Amino acid sequence: MNHLGTNFYEAASVILFGIGFMNLLLQNNLIKKFIGLNIMDTAVYLFLAAKGYISGRVAPILTDGIIDASHYINPVPAGLVLTGIVVAVSITAFSLALVQRLYKHYGTLNMDEIMRLSREEEGE
């Protein structure tokens, strides 16, 4: 039987995802929104890593002549996590560059203020 006490990595990832999602929804500051997005990314990586680990198994490196797949863990979740981290860092860097350009143009990081100023520019 699975319950919260034995699946604490999964529970922690769900809590982290919720924190990041609420931060993404409730904050007006663009930098804080991207922090929330990165917390959500980290929660997904923790969940994948927790699901990919099987107690009693070892990394999929052939040693001692054991070729039975049931002796090793699945390497796909680790590959997905590494790929996700690379993509998340790239997206974060690009997003922060865009936020910097928005700040230079509008002089604020407040999303509501940026939307108001952009509507005023369109009206001119």
Topology:
Blueprint: H1 8-26, H2 30-52, H3 76-106, H4 111-123
Helix pairs in contact: 1-2, 2-3
Please summarize what this structure is.
The protein has 124 residues and is an all-alpha fold. It has 4 helices and no strands. The chain has a single domain (8-121), classed as Helix Hairpins (Orthogonal Bundle).
What can you see in these coordinates?
Helices cover 69% and strands 0% of the residues. The protein has 124 residues and is mainly alpha-helical. The N and C termini lie far apart (64 Å). The chain has 4 helices and no strands. It has one domain: Helix Hairpins (Orthogonal Bundle). The radius of gyration is 21 Å and the shape is elongated.
Spell out the helices and strands N to C.
HHHH
Largest sheet: none
CATH class reads Mainly Alpha
The helix content is 55-70%
End-to-end Cα distance, whole Å, is 64 Å
Strand content range: under 5%
Question: Would you count the extended β strands for me?
Answer: 0
Gyration radius, rounded: 21 Å
Low-confidence stretches: none
Shape: elongated
Task: From the structure above, extract its key features.
mainly alpha, single chain, 124 residues, elongated
